[in-house]
Amino acid sequence: MSNQTGRDxxxxxxxxxxxxxxxxxxxxxxxxxxxPTTTINERFATVDKPLPCGGPRRHTGTIGNxxxxxxxxxxxxxxxxxxxxxxxxxxxxxRRLPIALRSGRGITVCDIEGRKYIDCLAGAGSLALGHNHxxxxxxxxxxxxxxxxxxxxxxPTPLKDQFIHELFESLPADFPKHFKIQxxxxxxxxAIEAALKLVKTATGRRGILSFHGAYHGMTHGALSLTAQxxxxxxxxxxxxxxxxxxxxxxxxxxxxxxxxxxxxxxxxFIEKLLDDPGSGIILPAAMILEVVQGEGGVNPAPNxxxxxxxxxxxxxxxxxxxxxxxxxxxxxxxxYAFQHSDILPDxxxxxxxxxxxxPLSVVIYRRELDQWKPGAHAGTFRGNQLAFATGAxxxxxITAQHLENNAEEMGRRLQxxxxxxxxxxxxxxxxxxxxxxxxxxxxxxxxxETSEDLPPPSPKLARKIQNECLRxxxxxxxxxxxxxxxxxxxxxxxxxDEIDEIAARFRAAVAASERAFxxxx
Length: 521
Ligand SMILES: Cc1ncc(COP(=O)(O)O)c(C=O)c1O
Fold this sequence. Notes:
The chain has helices spanning about 5-10, 40-45, 80-85, 95, 120-125, 135-145, 160-170, 175-180, 190-205, 220-225, 230-235, 260-275, 305-315, 385-400, 405-425, 460-470, 495-520; strands at about 100-105, 110, 115-120, 180-185, 210, 240-245, 285-290, 290-295, 300, 320-325, 345-350, 360-365, 430-435, 435-440, 475, 475-480, 485-490. It is α/β, with parallel strands linked by helices.
């Protein structure tokens, strides 16, 4: 890879996960995971060992097993138990990843007892440069030394100016001239809300077209566009005028087809739907989609399909919103995922990586859409100066080091290794992804669903594999229908050796999970 030397010279390697020796898959089990039957919670209660991450820290008067706990002591012994006692029932990650984190460096994190994990979740993709990258840390130190005001609403500042400059520089040449930017409250969901209001105002229309498998966030409007039915079930009054369209898949095609046919029929169906006065769909305010669906199970849109969708929407005057909250800034092997298919969106929604790990979100849109009135979208935390500093530094670093190329190369290497594991295992139905957004669909190979002629997804086995990965010191996420897709989203700085180690730990986790399932069958 052309940029390899420069990147290796400069990029922060963190604590290499291989530094402690490259464990064989089975011996890679964490020291605390005494036996395969010990649960993580049991380990929390029993393990007492030195901490390689800097030793125990005393939280005087607050939290921690090792210090006085006047407030928390009545809640139990562990962070997780205390969390369970006070935090919302809506919490998610600790249910599947029952660990309490203390520190992070490079692609690894350390839990409160000093166990190290390869972090293939990386703040749900928000930590493009991994944990505590020197470029990010330096940006924070510098901003603090300048005594910048932390929050400035939407007033201009030098840091904001710099951030806008870096962001537009990273986008295709059309952007500075033809697009404007709106800073939003710091979450991706808030930027989605803003995008919805923008297109509705500009077009005077109401309906939105979204896709099966879509994830656009959890606020009321964003949830309306999200395809997952479970979080929607209890919520009345979601935006009614959202139509969900079939997203192509050559593995589980909604039309029962495969290969190119899935994409062709999906585009054909959408075109007919829009032109049919009897389809029940009126001309919408926008179509929104992810170029690679993330939470939906790592489903990359075929380039040809996306070009066709762009053509269909453009010809009918339907603004195309691309939600690149997760794909943006190098993740898929190009700086922006829409660049794979050489199209341009009308509205681009960005968050996660663009803040360099600090919360930041924006909507970038064609100037013609700038019809909304002053104050049409607002939010207290639109002017997070530290996020502008870390975001600008991260964009500069990714573009200078061409980390999108590393994402492409490492993603290909990971997929190749996962396909080898697929050949050895029975429970891997499909390996897919783009760049460092990779998914493995876990199936129950003992059954064939006649409707699809394919084995059904196995969320239960996927969870077991996630758990076995954790026991081997690796954090992976689940996504897709019912959580049956194991997802890999490692930081863009990951190296070839680290990818091999990720694959080795996954191989061992899959083998152990299959053995356990056979034993329990
Ligand atoms: C594609 C996409 N859009 C929107 C969101 C919502 O972002 P946030 O969780 O910051 O509200 C996410 C979050 O994962 C996402 O992946």
